[in-house]
Amino acid sequence: SADVVPQAPEDPLFGLMAAYRRDTDPNKVDLGIGAYRDNNAKPWVLPVVKKADEILRNDPNLNHEYLPIAGLADFTSASQKLVLGADSPAIKEKRVTSLQTISGTGAVHLGALFLSKFYRPNQQRTVYFSDPTWPNHFQIFSNVQLPYLTYPYFDKETRGLDFDGFINTLNNAAEGSIIVLHACAHNPTGVDPTQEQWKEIAKVIKERKLFPFFDTAYQGFASGDLARDGWAIRYFVEQGFELVIAQSYAKNFGLYGERAGCFHFVTSPTSDADSVTARVASQLAILQRSEISNPPAYGARIASTVLNNPELFAEWEANLREMSGRIIAMRKALRSKLEELGTPGTWNHITDQIGMFSFTGLTEKQVLKLREDSHIYMTKNGRISMAGLNTHNIDYFAKAVDKAVRE
Ligand code: PMP
């Protein structure tokens, strides 16, 4: 009977959102969930998404039939070009197989499930996550019974990358281990390796015969430049790795609830690429069919409309620059306000970190105090969603932080 089902804890992030919604204070600030907000703290429908929506709604041939198991072909092929670069040899050589998924989470899950079934069966295959990482990584890989460990990532002293710890752990990881890497705008820290550091990471992963698993949820959203944010993945592909990529369109298209994403498997150029790709695709199709049958159409149609039209694509890039630009401006403003106030500590990490989040270094006690005294909501690890800050609340926030740090 269901009597044996124990009570599970509430998801911390979605619990935080609910607490924020219940709070009736007019000055409340939501810095929890990673969703873009405009300067009035409102969700932003990208203008280019509105246009694509118009185009779709006026299409007399639009219907609600099932998509194929692998999803909308125009969407998955445009997704390959976006993540790997339009002239990627891996695409030309047909070394990539892609399936549309339930956003980035579904892509991570499909990748984890595929690896659990077909990657080094009956051999050691530990998964390594950065410490810290997006907490859902732990749950998704546990669900498919893959054992995991972590590699050092965030250096609490410098609030930057613990590069030596990272490399040292890779050097000591057992052959065949799966290394989950955030392609850009690391969640939750906002700390990314430099290109030189990525090269070193790739070198060790190759030497140690490890398997790269890229999670890319912020391409274009981080720096406003799609190629720059895609650099690490493209570099690894250039180095000839066999690897997988979980791609989300939640943030960069603002399509959070539409669940548009893509999973890519890239075979190495030395393999019998055609045959490997075909066999991998056939197995992924069976997994997809049994899990979701076929993916949801609407979000993929929106993204596909934009990705496949040069004019709309250029407009999307401008929308991306607007979002990333506002976030970068908020980073600068927050740092300078804290420095003006003389808030104890150093605050350069606010502008050094990139993407949606900043790992402020605030302690759990300070975080709870900010919630109680100032109605400011952030996760207990001191992570703030930069998008929740705007020209109306940044002074209030900086002053509240200053007070909490001094207490
Ligand atoms: N990976 C990381 C690192 C993320 O930050 C996110 C978004 N929070 C995702 C994957 C996937 O999100 P979604 O399923 O909404 O695309």
User: CATH first level of the largest domain: which class?
Assistant: Alpha Beta
- CATH structural fold name of the largest domain: Aspartate Aminotransferase, domain 2
- How many helical stretches? 16
User: What Rg is obtained from the alpha carbons, in whole angstroms?
Assistant: 21 Å
Helix content: 40-55%
Order of helices and strands: HEHHHEHEHEEEHEHEHHEEHHHHEHEEH
What's the N-to-C terminus distance?
51 Å
The largest sheet has its strands arranged as: 2-10-9-8-7-3-4
- The figure for the number of domains is 2
CATH superfamily of the largest domain: Type I PLP-dependent aspartate aminotransferase-like (Major domain)
CATH structural architecture of the largest domain: 3-Layer(aba) Sandwich
| Structural category | alpha/beta
Main β-sheet description: 7 strands, mixed
Shape type: globular
* Ions, cofactors and other bound molecules: 4'-deoxy-4'-aminopyridoxal-5'-phosphate
Mean pLDDT, to the nearest integer, reads 96
Task: Pick out the low-confidence regions.
Answer: none
Based on DSSP secondary structure assignment, what is the total number of beta strands?
13
Name the beta content range. 5-15%
Helices, strands, pairings?
Elements: H1 12-22, E1 29-30, H2 47-57, H3 73-84, H4 89-92, E2 96-102, H5 103-118, E3 127-131, H6 136-143, E4 148-152, E5 154-155, E6 160-161, H7 163-172, E7 178-182, H8 195-207, E8 211-216, H9 226-229, H10 231-238, E9 243-248, E10 260-266, H11 273-291, H12 298-307, H13 310-341, H14 348-352, E11 357-359, H15 364-374, E12 376-377, E13 383-385, H16 394-406
Parallel strand pairs: 1-12, 3-4, 3-7, 7-8, 8-9
Antiparallel strand pairs: 2-10, 5-6, 9-10, 11-13
Helix pairs in contact: 2-12, 2-13, 3-12, 5-6, 7-8, 8-10, 13-16, 15-16
4'-deoxy-4'-aminopyridoxal-5'-phosphate binds at residues 34, 103-105, 108, 134, 182, 187, 215, 217, 248, 250, 261.
